Amino acid sequence: MEPADRLQWKKVKLWLPITAAFAATLLTSLQALQFVTSSTLTVLRHSSIILTAFIEYHIMHTQFDLAAVLCLLGICLGALVYGLADLSFSISGYVWLTMNVIAISWYQVMMKNIASQKLLNTLGMTLYNNVLSVPLFMLQTIINKEDLRDASLSSSALGILVASAVCGTILSITAVAMNQYMTATSLMVLNHVNKFCLILLEHFLIEPTLTWISFAGTLQVRLLCLDFYMENLVCLREFFQSCTLN
C-alpha cells in the first residue's frame, strides 16, 4: 500500500479529458439501454475492441500480428452470433452506442498512455479518475432534472449498494494497476471475456438463458481469446511479482 498522489491543478488539467471519456462511457451506455436490448449493447460494444486496437496502433504504435487481428475479428463475430436472436434496431440507440464505443476505446487508450508515463501512482490515478468524474455526473443529474429528494432505499438495497461500492473500488484500483502491464487492447479483451464468463455462470448456476446458437457464440468468444489469454497470463505474473517485491 502507498499513499495516493494529491490532487494538483497541473495534473487535474491533464486528467480531465480522461475523466470526460470515463463519464461518457457510463452515461452513453445508460442512454443506449433505453432504446436497445442488453444483447444488442453487448454485441455492438465488442466493436470497441477493434477500435481500441486501431487507436492504440496509430497512437502508441502497438504492433498486432495476423493471428491477433483474426482473433479480434473472431471475438466480434462470436458476440454477434451470441446476440443474433435478440438484436434490436433503434436509430437513437445506435447513435448512443456509437458514442459509447468511441468513448470506451478512447478512454482505454488514454489510460494506458498516462499509466505508461507513470506521472501518478495506482491509487493516485484511481483518485483522479473517480473524484473528478463526480461533478460531471452531478451536472448530468441537473440537466436531466432528476429529483433525488424522494429517493429511499431499504436496508437490503443499501447493503447491496455499499457492497457494490466496495467491489467498484477494488475493480477500479486493479484495472488501473493492470494498465501498467497490459496493452489497452489486451485489457479490453479481458474485460469483454469476463462478461461472457458471467453469461455462462448465469446460464448454469441461476437460470438457463442461452440457446444452442448463442451458447456456440459464447464459446467462440472464449476460445478465440486463447492467444490473448496467454499474453495476459504473462502480464499478470509480472503484476503479482511486482506486488510481492513492493
Automatic annotation (TrEMBL):
Localization: Membrane
Residue spans crossing the bilayer: 66-85, 91-107, 119-143, 155-178
The keyword Membrane is annotated on this UniProt entry = yes
Q: Which residues form the signal peptide?
A: none
State the membrane topology.
Answer: Multi-pass membrane protein
Its GO CC terms?
A: membrane
Protein's name in the database: Sugar phosphate transporter domain-containing protein
Q: Which organism is it from?
A: Guillardia theta (strain CCMP2712)
